[in-house]
User: Fold these one by one.
Assistant:
Number 1:
Amino acid sequence: MADYPIELDNVSKEYRLWGRRSQFATLKSALLGRDLKMAPEASVPALTDVSFSVDRGEAFGIIGRNGSGKSTLLKLVSGILKPTRGRVAVSGRIAALIELGAGFHPEITGRENIYINGIMLGLTKREIEQRFDKIVEFSGIGPFLDQPVKTYSSGMYVRLGFAVAVHVDPDVLLIDEVLAVGDEEFSARCIAKIQEMKYRGVTLLFVTHQLDQVRNLCDRALWIDKGRVEAIGDPMRVVDAYLQEVSGTTMATPPEPAAEDAAPAEPEPPPQKSELDEERWGSGEIVIRNVALTDHKGRELVALGAGTPVVIDIDVEARVAQDDFVFGLGIYHADGTCVYGTNTEVEGFVPEKIEGTARVRFVIESLDLIAGTYRLDCAVHARNGRAFDYRRNVLRLIVGSRIHDIGVYRPQHEWKFDGGIAFHSIDPTRQNVPAEIAEAMREIDADKRGKRKK
């Protein structure tokens, strides 16, 4: 098998239930029965045949209802629990934040707990001393460092635990829902630190009910329900499938119109691969019928120049009237980099009602993109993120330009020079040609002029 930092193969975990009948009433009854073995009355499966692997440097999110087996899964990966069946393989140094305050002794100070926790995570005393100041600075609990940990609030527990865990240079970082205890400022700092660790190749496995973090931070996601894998893969799709299940709707089966005399709506065709490799999912209560990129005269565009004014026209049909809806779009470079994304909610539009057919227009006065190929995602969803219709790669656009700068965005600008700086004058038709090519073209023109004089 491939060398993965985390790999689970058909892992199952069962917990034994001990009732009164499985216990001895007295020592005398046990001796008279001549059987000192106790047997559980029943067992409950917490996980059943779970298999997945996580690549090095990947952020892998685990979502699901309370009691679905998420924390049990993390404890199996960390080695706190052993599987009843199957194989769990983890390579590298592991740092875990699984239970609030786990590994801390309440009677001793924060300073002493940093040393004890660091040693438990595999550091030497000298290594802890080298990182001590950074740990304290990140945690932000400096004034209380020499107070007993039992006097700390739950947020201070998390700050200290997370600060130690991320500064032991782990190969694998496991995080349970404990980050939800922290305040907004500390959560933002944690996310920034996690992104930095991803860049350094640290593998992240975390359980959370904060679905936006899964969408924005994770490379893949796992939805687990009643101990079984329901979905695994792209975080957008996995989160949306989970939300559809929680809301009691079925994905990709659009409902019929509410009017009794209306003809039944034809089901949306199943997602098909086009030349754009478009992906599509959602409940179908609102459907995006068409998305077009047009100029100011309404003509559809595929290729355009940098700085072109454009309009994104989105034709929608609400098969069931809704008062909770958000329209969003995202522009991505061909390499997957997100260039820009927004939606009506973040821009302050409060939904009131949508029914029947409608058109949404997103007007861009100047699309200042560097030359290249881009794709467009378009979606309509509920405010909690549950998709009515999500269309990924719905459009492809090609931006052409004589400009040879790099990146994705070109702000309007001009160059100004003062002092002893001079440049050759450039033919305006060649001003966006790289300097080496422009110089070669000048030499060719000079040769031509010389030949004409002869």
Number 2:
Amino acid sequence: MKLLASLKERGLVYQTTGTGGLEGFLSEKPVTFYIGFDATAESLHLGHLVPLMAAAHMQLAGHKPLILVGSATALVGDPSGRSAERSLLTPEEVAKNTDALQIQMTRFLDFGHGGAELLNNGQWLQGLNYIDFLRNIGRHFSVNRMLTAESVKLRLETGLSFLEFNYMLLQSYDFLHLYQNRNCVLQVGGADQWGNIVAGVDLVRRVTGDEVHGFTCPLVTTSSGEKMSKSQPGGAIWLDPGLTSPYSYYQFWINTDDGDLGRFLRLYTFLPIERIVDLEANSGADLRASKEVLAFEATAIAHGCEAAESARNASRALFLGEGELDSVPSLRITDEMLARGITLLDLFSLAGLSSSRGETRRLADQGGLYAGGERVTDPMKPVTQTALEGDGLLLRAGKKRYCRVVRD
């Protein structure tokens, strides 16, 4: 099967530029393409993972990815998909985020000799002369046409700053720069980037007379309508293990709604379509086994097979009564802490099973906290050394959030 058709079968393609010639273009010879991620946070989240998966499939097919971390564009702010202007980051914050994202990218693509490359648009954007940029680049943009872009139209009612209005020019210039200097002929991005991608394709044509291409990946939502983003209910699912642990990452996938299973297997794993069809055909008790495959494969891609194995073992021990509890997320308490006095309220807060002490009290009042298999009615109950002997004290908040407390 041809590459573009394969990507479409997996649900990784939403819109394409041109009049249908992209498939032939990708089949003729290996091409260089790019995906950009602005350094507006210290980690990517699940919403960013879709174009990264598309890039991985394209690399496996022989094409070369350029992964662009936008340190310069992060200082401006992309209005796409936002109802209000984002808070301006300091150059120091952007630099810190850039370093973190560059490290994170190496887990998803092959950056070995001749493989994917990491770039930073600060290298060419921050040295531009403003007057020269307006004369050489700005003259190719029609304000009337820019106002028709979805990212701009949605913001005109609430207010769009001139700073943000410039964002489309900068991202378009990225494409032109990469075409002229790296022979990059294709841009891939999320669906909210369509207007920026089309503008970049048009700028390359106007400046050089040559044709380049672009396609977008869908903005993924769950069957309940929740968007994979920073603001999703329950908090973002980050790709940084320091922000979302491999165990929590695994639990997100194994708790997938039945209606999302097949779609997520296609989007977030490399399993063959034939295998996915078999997995989504399961029902009843076998359906959990299918979700376990999704959870393991997705976690292995993001965090490695060892972390995925550990998360699976912990999940089986907690929910199926199989295996040891060693892999369950743990909180270590010292004898000194016990001697000073520590309560169940302290443990639930320290374990990250609640966002605050107030929430811990509310969960206890609602009957949603358990310690050692017993419902917590008094969160101020002191914790003793005896309670932490053996395998430790297993805490549970709600139905599926666990942590094992052990003596250090």
Number 3:
Amino acid sequence: MAATIVWLRQDLRLHDNPALHAAVTRGAPLVLVHVLETAGPWRPGAAMRYWLHENLAALALELQRHGQRLLLLRGDARRELARLREACGADALFFNRRYEAHGSAVDVALEADLADVCEVRSFKGHLLFEPEQLRTGGGTPYRVFTPYYRACLQQPVPAEPLPAPRRWPAAAPAPQALALAALELEPRIAWAGGIAARWPAGEQAAHVALDEFIDERMRDYSRDRDRPALAGTAGLSPYLCIGAISARSCWHAAHAAALRERDAGQASASEAWSRQLVWREFAYHLLHHFPHTPTQPFRTEWEAFPWVDDDEALRRWQRGMTGMPLVDAGMRELWHTGYMHNRVRMVVASFLCKHLGLHWLSGARWFWDTLVDADLANNTLGWQWSAGCGADAAPYFRIFNPVSQSRKFDPAGIYLRRWVPERASLGDKAIHDPAVRVAGYPAAMVDLAVGRQQALARYADLPR
């Protein structure tokens, strides 16, 4: 019997993997493959390459337990998959959809390439709602989150997550592929220890993280989510990004928790987190309908905005040496762990784009290279929202004050002391104030009041 190829991309898991489930149900021998694509404008950054290596290793080990092999290829996906199909005599190619412009174009072209020799099917596996599924009353894509969120709540409940396969077809004979090390995803200099310590890889680790969040932290999510010194967030974005867990698994876990809360007569603690899952959906909705936004502003009046060009200021921001304690703490957390608390992400982005006046794309590219959850849709929406040029960015003149944010969300300075140890000996009030100088820590790059006024002056020339 001819084989079925399953092309694994942002879905490195066995549970709730529609393409894999359909291939197993089909019953033909399986060829499971990941292609490290070498073309395209947004290839994985350094942190994501390391994270991909670890999750491919975890998936390969799990597949081996089921008598399967994960083939690894590198190059142009259309060429490599056409060669693979011919070599193993496959008559079907299944994969879960992706939504960025380049990847979508490759998938469409591949389907056309193989239409005469192979069944090619794509499945909904990365999102709760397809981007084409939701439109405004006027038939246009949504541009503002709140009405999009309400529309999502009116949709049928997302289907239950699919189980992992229990009975597997035989693995099909397949040609020799690359060893994982040959993909050269790991750094040549061992800088990823902090990422490894913070983020155990693989599907099992993802589900453990989900269960721990639901059982131990979701009740206090609304209260603790903005406190960077606390483990108050779900901590699932790296797993969602790489596909070690599905959005449906997260959604239904939250829904089940809400039912338990209701049955116990408790107020629901799950809605705030479910709303964040829909924010992720909104990001993909925008990426699909406005594919230019990873590099161009959503709001066209920003195309001629007078961004500041200052390489030294960008370097200081990247290295956590701005002299603004909360900004520096966030940038150092990012460098060490491949992650930054979401509240702090907003603060550091606002500081870069508004107080320093640097282009949002400089920040987006740095995050792309250093985040283990470097998701193009979320990264684009977040940076354009922070800069003021994106969807749902009103008021565009919102400017976060890093000192007041620090005092509000890290009042005892616990987060600052961890990541900016130069200031650890200062008291709870002084530690937030950049005017309080300590040896070995730089002076503030900009006066916050002056930077705010300069930003507002730049905004004054924007068309209304």
Number 4:
Amino acid sequence: MTFDTVVVNGVAVFRGTGPSRVTIAVKDGKIAGLLDPDERPQADEIIDAQGLLIFPGLIDPHMHIGFVGQPLTDVASETRSAAIGGVTSIINYLLKPGDYEEPFAELTEHIERLAYVDMGIHLGIFTPQQVEAVHGYMEKYGVSSFKFFMSYKGDEGTRRGVAETDDGLLYDLMTMLAKIPGTVVNVHAENIEMIWRAEARVKEQGLEGLEAHNLSRPGQAEAVAMLAAMYMARERGCPLYLVHMSSKEAAQEVRRARRAGGTVYVETTPHYLSLTVGSECGLLAKVNPPVRAPADVGSLWEAVKDGIVDTVGNDHSARFRSEKGGGVWKAGAAFPGVGTMLSVLLTEGYHKRGVSLERIASIASYNTARIFNLYPRKGALEVGSDADLAIVDLEREMQVSADYLQSRADFSPWEGLHLKGWALRTLVRGETVMRDGEIVGREGYGTYLRRLPPPHH
């Protein structure tokens, strides 16, 4: 057989067995063979990996393209940035309080026309009518994960352009999803009543900067909301995915609560694993929940090592430096991160803390694919899986620059820092989309990912 592409001289990071030499054969966008490392089959294209690592293409389950007034044309720039970082699939949040038919069609049209990598969609749930519609969303749109903000109570949601929520609505959503196999609820867990009071106290004291933001949204507010969400999910029998865990308090409570049973998945982010209130980037790193203290970073890495953390997402948003001015209370929250995801994990996890390459591949790819109904199509180096590959130089050290990352955002909170371990080549379904920091793929090559549960659910 003549293959389309063969990758030779690479060291693949396999689930279960770790790194090992292999020849990867690709046909029709799929991995068609995992061959003896010395085998050289016929192929239209031979890629010499030159002893570099081959990761399964990374999957970012937490992207915000088209939110807070950002244009949907960002699908092009932000999927370019994903490819720069070895990310081959993303799942973007579509957050609207009304009917989804028109905004869903608009977003998927932009994906099919502009995306460089593959994209799925999570839908936000804000109203009782949307709760009743989730079964239809799954069948019509191929969406199996639904976002809920516990913090959008009172006018907190409406002033952010969505809608007011409450814990009763979350309970109803969990009750509904428990009846639909293969679904999961993605919960932003912060207790807003605690935050309102904490923020008032911090403002009275005249505090500023990232430390003020951290004190105004304390880890206890995250832990309390996570506990409530975990109890409701366990009681209803609904799989729960806790997004962007940021604090040692939350990690401790998740560790305790998991012993009680129920299906709970936990996501953290590269910024909570590397940035703190003392980071030089200052308010460029403002985000909700906040970046916190070095002790929180250490606690989250322990949670990565011992299996409490299942996935890593970026909470990526293509904001501008100009939106970060005016002091801590006026600065916009969120920032870009998809292009530096792998490099932060390798620098802080593998090089500094000895986290295994297999563990990094699990939290950055395989686990995400499994939780969100993308496995075995995505997330693994297996015969029959999409040939999504990140060819990575563990020893490549580079200074972070926004220009290199190619997001529409004009900054990175890691800008100026040196990160060690970068993707040198990114393949999506067997096609090279990034090589040596240059985008060589084409707009519109990426495709929309319908995510229906496998038959065994």
